[in-house]
Design the sequence.
């Protein structure tokens, strides 16, 4: 990627100019971060796994009519994506009490919520990505009402689909974070699902054992992060059952 212009450098991904107008190349790094980057490590193979898992999930969502920025996977670490104007909000959907919700509301971890809860967070690392209301979003013009309605509707559709998909492979989708962006479709501005969908951005628990197979493994020092992500990849069918998380180059072997 050194021959392409760096457009944006994030904690877990870089964006480079794409080969055609309106496209970008999204590169998945091996960096693992938590607590607003207060905890940081390089985890060999993590980016490869997230690239492949996100490709699989984005492809599935495209197939059911949820428009995403994903075009195709280029190689083991890179995806070709549509360039979008990112809406400065993170959308979180929660099905089970975990993480900050437990602390804020005094709930018991693992407690099923009465219904899926959708939350908005303002994207600003310096502020710690604070939770905001629709009133804040409208007042500061971060998104219009139609955008908010579209994001909520799409987030709940994503939740319905992924909950069933993961349950089918013995995993409980506890919660997840997604982002959205705008593109122009002719004269109409539309909202697309953007960023990534991977164990970095969701909580996944084994249905039988309760074992965590997401970034909480890193946050809480629960073991080998790559092995946890590789288990998710194996269950989704993008990594052979009889292959371990490492290969000769220190990264995972995935199905092409």
Sequence:
């Amino acid at each position: 990627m050194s021959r392409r212009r760096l457009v944006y450098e994030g904690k877990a991904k870089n964006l480079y100019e794409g080969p055609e107008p309106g496209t970008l190349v999204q590169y998945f790094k091996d960096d693992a971060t938590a607590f607003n980057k207060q905890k940081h490590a390089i985890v060999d193979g993590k980016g490869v796994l997230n690239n492949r898992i996100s490709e699989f999930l984005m492809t599935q969502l495209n197939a059911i009519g949820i428009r995403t920025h994903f075009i195709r996977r280029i190689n083991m670490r890179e995806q070709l994506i549509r360039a979008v104007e990112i809406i400065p909000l993170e959308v979180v959907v929660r099905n089970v009490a975990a993480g900050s919700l437990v602390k804020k509301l005094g709930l018991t971890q693992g407690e099923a919520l009465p219904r899926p809860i959708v939350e908005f967070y303002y994207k600003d690392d310096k502020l710690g990505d604070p939770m905001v209301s629709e009133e804040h979003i409208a007042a500061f013009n971060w998104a219009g009402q139609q955008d908010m309605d579209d994001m909520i509707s799409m987030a709940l559709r994503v939740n319905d689909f992924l909950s069933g998909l993961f349950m089918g492979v013995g995993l409980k989708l506890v919660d997840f974070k997604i982002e959205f962006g705008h593109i122009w479709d002719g004269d109409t501005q539309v909202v697309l699902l953007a960023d990534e969908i991977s164990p970095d951005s969701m909580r996944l628990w084994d249905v039988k054992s309760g074992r965590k197979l997401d970034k909480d493994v890193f946050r809480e020092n629960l073991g080998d992060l790559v092995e946890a992500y590789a288990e998710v990849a194996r269950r989704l069918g993008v990594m052979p059952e009889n292959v371990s998380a490492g290969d000769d180059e220190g990264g995972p072997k995935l199905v092409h």
Summary: Helices lie at 46-63, 100-105, 134-139, 145-167, 216-219, 225-236. The first strand starts at residue 6 and ends at 9.
